[in-house]
Design a protein that fits this description.
With 443 residues, the protein is an alpha+beta fold. The chain contains 15 helices and 19 strands.
Length: 443
Amino acid sequence: MSDISASIEPDDLDGLFARFFADRPHVRTALAVSGGSDSTALMALMAEWIARTGRSFASCTVLTVDHRLRPGSAAEADAVARQASALGLGHAILVWQGDKPASGLQAAARRARYRLMADYALAHDIGLIVTAHTEDDQAETLLMRLARGSGLDGLGAMAPLAPLQDGEPLLIARPLLEVPKARLQAYLRRRGIGWIEDPSNASPIFERVRLRAAKSALEGIGLTPGMLSLSARRLRQVRAALDRWVADVLDPRAGIVEVHPCGFFDVDRSKLTALPDEIVSRVLAHAVAAAGGAGQPVPLAGVEAILAELASTPTGAWTLARARVAAAPERLLIEREPGRDALPTLLLVPGSVAVWDGRFRVSTGHRCEGAVEVRALGVEGVRELRARVDVATRLPVASLRATPSFWRGIDLLAVPPLDFRSGAEAGELRATFLALAGSGGGG
């Protein structure tokens, strides 16, 4: 794959896709396809690989998000649907409803796109979302993050395979990260497949477009997409080693961090701060992200500011990314910030799965007698629970009140993180803190 303008050939297909399915051969898959050249090539390449390997076309669905940002977007989504059908793939159009922000439009559209695809995936038992990010996208991402002063995680840019959110089983695969855009367009021309040109890709109001305008100058000093992507790949290797260290710190056997099923972290302050600063920062960022459930990267500057104050004060409290960090001389408590953003209410029918407040995976079994409501336990719920069972007095009140509970009308059916269940169907109700989802913890 050395010629950046040569078409992708059939012999290249296994190298692109097989690695993502080796450990999950039967996973249901969604392709994120907008209709542009990159994602159209992804769709055609995936269909060709499925046909060559004998996999089931039924296991792969194309998802197109209609952002409703310009006239003709619905017609473009319909055109992608026709292309998908011609390739033998199923298709669904997901619409971004509601008002659009006046600023930060591209970032908001990206968040909406992933939220819509994740919701669809959860509802249709899809475990893998495949996107068409290319080597060019990877290079642009690294440059954009350099311009913002990003740390190691940001400079590692995009990983070939990663969870959509920490603790979530839904994965994002990016098989084209080492493929130049020029090769994808050469492939489409060879196959006689057209694509849609998004006019926003030529608008200088967007950061990526301005970077593309500087591409020739950057390449003239050696900052080619290939070399930038190589740097990002090497930085991800360092990040992987640090992530392993953080996982060891979070392991209960280390005796440093307790991750509670109710959604909070109780940290031995002296043991944590004895570790290297980079590891302390990563542990804190991980805990803030999980306890807050904001669904966005935790600002590194915010983490650094908290750590700087912790170094000089025995007690204090700070908020960041919907989480509250409270310091006592010997402990740190990291929990959902009280009063910040209303805690949601979900109505779950039997056999459904959802993510509640960005922090818990909640589900109902098929044998439930009817729909149930998932909401925060709240003041009244805590009072009722304490009247019925013993609740450990050491549990933080704010975290108790922000714990998910299952109700039918005024009847409290279950609080799975506290192992409380009432009635025969309560065993079908589950709520697992996402920070524990991969470790078998939770209810």
